[in-house]
Every structure is written in structure tokens, then in C-alpha cells.
From TrEMBL:
It catalyses: glycyl-[protein] + reduced [flavodoxin] + S-adenosyl-L-methionine = glycin-2-yl radical-[protein] + semiquinone [flavodoxin] + 5'-deoxyadenosine + L-methionine + H(+). This is Anaerobic ribonucleoside-triphosphate reductase-activating protein. Keywords: 4Fe-4S, Iron, Iron-sulfur, Metal-binding, Oxidoreductase, S-adenosyl-L-methionine. It comes from the Bacteria. Its cofactor is [4Fe-4S] cluster. The keyword RNA-binding does not apply.
Amino acid sequence: MKVLNILHDSVVDGEGMRTVIFFAGCPHFCKGCHNPKSWNIRNGSEMTVDEIVDEVMSNPLCDVTLSGGDPFYQAGEVKEVARRLRENGKNIWAYSGYTLEELLDLGGDYVELLSYCDVLVDGPFILAEKDLSLDFCGSRNQRVIDLNQLNLAERTG
């Protein structure tokens, strides 16, 4: 899959210290995006599931954030990364320009990826609703959703 960067020791991309995987590719093209280079999947470097998991696990003190771009743009492959990291005890946050409801409607790989995540920060960045006072969000329309309160496992398969 295509990855732009893996950044260790972030304290702004979810609770606690996190390793952030920035996946390439995003269909949302949000005006004011902090990472427009991430829109084009060709800007990423090819990495295997094993390579990504090994890099993340090289820093055992950090939990994980899936970001981008939009990690759901490559949901079929990213779900395997998330599954393996979850099996290794990692708490996983995911950022997406899709809303939770849109991801649930898409079904399949999208819901399976959600099922391995603990928290979803959803919704596109909307420049007119930008709010620097928010924790872990860039605009007021975005939500921080505790996915552990939902039973996503029954929606997969």
C-alpha cells in the first residue's frame, strides 16, 4: 500500500504518545487541508503490511493513529495493518474525511477497518468551521467517536 510517512512520538494525533501512519490518497480534497500532498496516491512509497507493522512495533511505547490522506482510501489493505496492530495490543485512532455513517453505508472493508479501531475522528475539514481550540479536530463539524461503544464486529463479514 502507499504510505507518505510514519512519524513516531506524536502527541497531537490522539490521546497519549502515538505513532502516526500517513497513508497516501484522499478523495475529499478539503480546502485548507494541512496535507494536500497526501491527496495523490502516487506521492506515497509502497510498503507491505509487515514493513508497516514492524516499523510501528519498533516503538513499543506508542499507540497508533491512521491518518493521511484518508486511510479508508486503501481500506482493503489498511484493515490488515490495523488488525495486526490490534492483535499486538495497540490502541488505534483513525482520521477520515468520511463520516461514520458514510463508512457504515459503504460496508465491507470500510466497516472491517473500523472494527479494529478504538476511535474515529470523522468528517471532512471545513475551512469555514476551523477551530484551533478543539482537541484532535480541525473544524467544528468533525467528531471524536469512541468506536468501542458500537458493535461493529456484527456488521463485518
